[in-house]
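haha ok so turns out i had the wrong file open the whole time. this is the CORRECT one, sorry everyone. sequence first:
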Amino acid sequence: MSDPIFVYALSTCPWCHKAKKYFEDKGVVFEAVDIDLLPDDESDRLAAEAFELSGSRAYPVVRIGGEVIVGFLPERFDQLLEAEA
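then structure:
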């Protein structure tokens, strides 16, 4: 797999928890950050990065390869994981 999977999340977001659990349960290596738990300057930077990628303020924002998915969409995650394999 070329680029690591990255999950922009909020600690209070149930869909973010589901997305991270999905990748854990699949045994997929990924990186995740709970933006709301970071110091203000880092939180602001990553929130802006997630917004720039997604065009949305919704979470989670999941980057798989060159694709960006907003929300918990396991069917789409599966498609992209298969394409990356």
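The two ends are 6 Å apart (CA to CA).
again sry for the mixup
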